[in-house]
Structures are given as C-alpha cells and as structure tokens.
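Page 42, continued from yesterday. The earlier attempt failed because a stray header line got pasted into the input along with the sequence. Redoing it now with the clean sequence only.
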Amino acid sequence: MLAILALICITLILMSGVGRADTPPFALHPDNPHVFLFRGGPTLLITSAEHYGAVLNLDFDYAKYLDTLAADGMNHTRMFVGAYCEPDGAFKIARNTLAPAAGRFICPWARSDQPGYANGGNKFDLSRWDEAYFARLRDFVSRASERGIVIEINLFCPFYGEEQWVLSPMNARNNVNDLGTVSKDAAYTLDGHGGLLAVQEAMVRKVVGELQGFDNIYYEVMNEPYIRKVPRDWEHHIVDVIVAAEAGPAHRHLISMNIANHQAKVEDPHPAVSLFNFHYAFPPVTVAMNYALGRALGDNETGFAGTSDARYRMEAWAFILAGGALYNNLDYSFTVGHEDGSFAYPDTQPGGGSRALRRQLRALAEFMRSLDFVRMSPHAELVHGLPDGVSAQALAEPGKQYAVYLYRPEAGAWGRSASVALALPAGAYRGCWLDCETGITTEFAFEHAGGEKSLPSPAFTHDVALRIAAAD
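This time it went through. Structure tokens are written below.
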C-alpha cells in the first residue's frame, strides 16, 4: 500500500508540470520563434503583476501573491534583483512594493557591521553575499515553478534621479568598500564606473549560478536603460557575462533586453538576446516594426494612461493579436498586506490593475490557447470594412484559422456592432465572437463560396474578438 501511495504521489508531481533540473528552460518555440516553449507546450506570457518588489521587500508575502496569480490564470511576473529600489512616494505610487519600509530592504549583498544605510540598518559589504536573500530568491522562484509561473529576473535598473541613487547599495555612501564614488549615470558604464563593473559582473554570475536549475525564468539585463542613456556596450557586456556564466550547463536561459517606451526599431541586436521588451506599447506598431527579427516581442510594463481596466485590456489584446508574445500589466492592486490583489488604490495612481482586469486577461489567455497559434502570423491586411474609429489586429493561418481583435482606442463607450469583411477561401467554417470585457460568447457557423465574407459582430462597449476555424 505504501508503495502504491508513493507511486501516486510521484505521478501527481510529474503531472503538475513542475520543472526539474534536467528540464529545458523556458525558450523560444523551435517552430515559431515569435512565441515561447515551456514544459513541452507552446506558450504566451499574459499577466497583471506587482511592481517588481516581491523578493527585495521583506514585508511582501510572495507566497500569497503567487497563489493569487495562479488562481487568476496568470502565468508571469517580473522582479527586480535588488541593485535598485525606490523611496516611498516615487512616481506617485501608493504603497509601492519597490519601496520597502525602513530596515526591510534585502538584496544580494550582505549587511556590514557599520550603521548608515540610507533607509535604515547597516551599510552593505559588496564583497559578501547575503545568503538569506538568496534563500528567499530561490524559494520565490521555486514556488512560482510549482504554479507554472515564469519569472523575469530583471538584473538592473538605471537611477532615474538622486532619490533612487541615494538608496542603492552601489552608492559609496551605502557600502563599506569605498566603491561607487561616481554619479548615478556613471554607475552603468564600461569605464568611469568607480569600481562597480566588477561588482555588477559578480552579482550577475552569483544570481545565474543560484538559479541555474530552474526552468521557469529568463533574464532581462536592465529595466528602461534608455531613460538615462545607459551605453549599449554596457548592456551587451552584461549579456556576455550571462552567456559565459551559463557556458557549462546543457541548458541556457533566455535573455531579454528592454528596448524603448512605446515603439522603436531594434538595431544590431545581440545574437544571444531572444526577447525584446517594450513599455506602454499601445497601439502595437512596434510589433510590425520588429517582427522580421524572428524573435519574441513583449510589452512588459504598462501605465501612465489612467486607472481604467479597459485601457490596459485593449493594450493586452492588441499587442498579442498583433503578433506579440508577452504582456505584463503593472498591477497596483498588489501591495504589502494586499498580496491577494485587493488594494483599492487612489485615482492618482500612474496605472491600473484589478481582479476584474485579471479575469479579462485570463479570457485573452484562454482565447489564445483555443488556437494553434504557433502556426499563425500577423495578417491585419485580411480585415476590411471597419467603421470609423474601430481598429483591428489579426492573426491567421490562411485557409485554416483566423483571430481578429476589434477595438476603439479612443476613450468612451460605444455600444454598437461592427461588420468585418474578411477574405476567406471557399469552405465550411465555425466561429465565435467574444466580448472582451464581459466574457460573453456568441457561436456561429457558415458555408462560404470564397472571397470576402461579411461578419457582423454583436454590439460591444470597447472591444470584441473573433475566432474562425475551417470546419473539419
């Protein structure tokens, strides 16, 4: 009986999808590098997640947070390692998880025996690691792995102003090593860095070594380097450090670079970078600009467009249906004490996030899983006849399956239907309209003689999605 119970337990563990040390990590899909492969299946990352402080903020209950993400159908989160944190009130964010309370900040470097850190407690020793931090980091990644959640390990962030630089362990005022006696903008350079480059390289190697056995991570070099004009050669150098640190293992983790806010064309990409992330990428013109790279494209931060769920839901659907592979809404409903995503933030918040939005994003994830999206590519040119003010994104495997997203980017409810003219070959089809806000579906079927087919949508407020497949 005990043997049978043991076998059942092992089977349940294997069925859960938890990665093992020999499991190939999260990667680009070999049949379509515009999407991902994770634990044997095609994957898109779609989430609404906290403001990156889950590990470095000792007061944040990340176990409850990860349970909430999993329960809400989210499969991704982003975290900052700890070379950067923020003061309370930064960017008008209420109860910012990246702004730990005094004495509650933890990072890769150990505390020294000398008092004087700017936000409480002893200064840091950049020559020693804080093993409690790495235990916390590994536990966070392990718990995420058990729930099938992929983590972006964001290694660095520029210092937007002196208020962030004054909190960094790399600032000479906060360490006992007499390192970092430079300006905030010199800290991330290949020369003039005041001895910090070796510290940064060592931290990257340490983090990579600690997380080598996990399959549910990828590394992003730096959040928003373009805001402070961090030299591209420094970014590429850090990519090289990651690659060298993983030279021995059989499986290497995917590497990402954050390219721009809104849109930009990627120039001279590093060959080891597989994912290019953008912020506030709405409308998603940056996908078309960079699709020919043959690598994944992400929209991994939203905000600064009010607190309306509709705005960030439209950004998600438009980006994914344009051919994007990743969407991460910056969700301010997650705070210390509200790790279940229930914080009622003020209207002054720079972005949004809510249980309702996560429910709507789950509908997007389920919609995409209903498609064989590995075989699909952007085909917005197939859509014709839209009313004024209505935009469309479309993915298709022509002749077999189609996905169309209609939305009104301008604010304000509409409450009308839209007729779509879609070029289709002759055949029998089945389809479904989905109201992206309410989740209400309308199924239909039709025979078509070939050419353009007019398909009227149900009335919708902001956005609606259409799925069509050739009948078997």
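Notes: The longest strand covers residues 427-435.
Reminder to self: strip header lines before submitting.
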